[in-house]
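<given_protein>
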Amino acid sequence: MASLLNEIPRESLQNLLSSVRVQGEFSHIAPFDILSDPTSPAPPFGYHISTEGYASAPLLSSLSRGDVIEVQGPASSGKTHLLYHFVLLCIAPSRQMSIDFGGNGLAAVVYDTDASFDVARLHQLLLTRLSLILPHNIEMARRLTEESLHRLHIFRPTSLLQLATSLLHLPLYHKVSIPEHEIGLLAVDSMSAFYWTDRFIAEQMRNMPHREPDPSSVNPLQHVLTALGRLRLSHAPFIILTNWGLNLAARSNGPVTFYKQHLHSFPVYSENHDASALPSSMTGDLPPTPMPLPLTHHITLSPVSIPPFAPEISLHDAVQQEVEYHRSMVQKGEIAGLVRTTGRQEITRLTFYITPENVRIGHL
């Protein structure tokens, strides 16, 4: 009888509730482009974009609790500003005094490993958006901005092992420090921050004679992925992982180039695999084996490239044309990207514009 009972899959009540949240009507976070026009009303929290009716939507689906998105691109390609957009969707108020603000009013946790997440910049973007909705009540816009920022929690680990440890203790932090809010978004910016340091340490460990390398030192990223997988099961946050674009891939599409995955054991996008479903059960609260962290979407970003010069153009004119083009590009702030969804072969083009006051999302 005991052996028979041991074969029955078990799961904790917390994981069951998270699974219900993911698959229930209220599981969907506001769609990708909700705040592209800050004055437009947002759909309800359970809104779901159908792929048939919105085939040109950037993600071809709504963003749901438990989704995992990788945002990859070179330096200055807009990864952190795109993250600002998602954070604003999460922490901005949803509805007050019959006014729909387009947010979700949830807590956002950001692991700023690159030390590039600017809270002052986020404050400016959020205040501008709320001021557009409340043009005649700036004081209320300021108050809502401050209240929203209290739902933002930033940690700055200095190694992958610190990141993994912090992620493992995040449920306790949530229970003690922010029990009144659900964690709607969990972001790591960037997963590559310790790439060169960890690679150097791994090479040194492999070259040490007569000593078996410590697995946690050789590949600490596996601990991070395990912790993220557990949080995905237990709390079902919307997970965003930014990543550097280091090595160009052979495949490209228009002005955007794809990049190879340089992080060993990092989840890889696959158009033939359905990563939307969570495991139906697990053995115990803390499984001994690493939990899977499948990507649901992959976004590749790149600044819009300069078009080639005409063959007959002189060097002086080419330099002048390049200067003028760079000036117009900076003023326009246009970033191009490609969105790939796991389990789908379609590739959607994405554009967004970074201005001093706003991050505006658009798509073609």
